From TrEMBL:
It catalyses: (R)-S-lactoylglutathione = methylglyoxal + glutathione. Keywords: Lyase, Metal-binding, Repeat, Zinc. GO terms for molecular function: lactoylglutathione lyase activity; metal ion binding. This is lactoylglutathione lyase.
Amino acid sequence: MARIVPMASSIKPSLTSLKFSVTARFALPRSSPSLCRKVASLHLCSVIPQLQPFGLRTSKLFKEDISSRSVIVAGNTTQASTATTHENVLEWVKQDKRRMLHVVYRVGDMDRTIKFYTECLGMKLLRKRDIPEERYTNAFLGYGPEDSHFVIELTYNYGVDKYDIGSGFGHFGISVEDVAKTVDLIKAKGGKVSREPGPVKGGNTVIAFIEDPDGYKFELLERGPTPEPLCQVMLRVGDLDRAIEFYEKAYGMELLRKRDNPEYKYTIAMLGYGPEDKNAVMELTYNYGVTEYDKGNAYAQIAIGTDDVYKTAEAVKLSGGKVTREPGPLPGINTKITACLDPDGWKTVFVDNIDFLKELE
């Protein structure tokens, strides 16, 4: 993957559209091409006898008139074709083979973070790569191989030992069989526990919150065995309904559940590509009356697999999102990606499924 730099992109491409505006003396109905040809033929038959006595001038007007009607027919056909294409792209999103691949964020000490994740959270170091010419290092950690599990991609930029997490990022979720036992282990290793084990507000699930050395929060959720222990990424949004619509339409996610907690003045929505007990999901949180958040420069993005980054970028644009990197191959490794922002400014990178597997080889 490309280097993740602290500053967000300022590129703001705009959508373009094609509009037909033609005024003609004879307005044809918006109908099928065959009907339009029949109407044009009827006009042709009725006009020719009347045009003959008037010579070249009338003949020229007649040709211009027929030409105008042809443009209208072509315009209507193109508009219909464009609408159909747009509809096809958005329908394709629902059928695309998508999966959350990894979450990317920045840390100030790579070795310290790897030690904490492996010893306290039970993750495995899957791979590590250093790019000295670009002055950064990546490490991938998780609970299973990258080709079938959601994992973490840590980025260390040379010489940068601290980042601002901001108020928009919430936490990562990890499913464990015994929250209290896990918390005791983390305490023994010197980890920070910010919420002791106990039922979640407004529910029965036993949870706890801990913090890693850089201040990122992890929610420990007590659940039975699961194939995807790294199970959640929580982000705060300013308009939950708008966010849900975008994630469904542009990202092809399914709204798994939605829960309002008026007593604590917040609402959450879980979205993903499969059931929560078997897949990683997005947890979007809306706090009553809060429409904007400081995103800081620590959290970077989610990566999602797709069969076609070009169609994905088109779907994002059609859904009102911003494409910050047009679809295409990355220099050097030829992995095709596209990057975009949701309505709240959270970044997502879509990666070609086949290219991603090749990159792992």
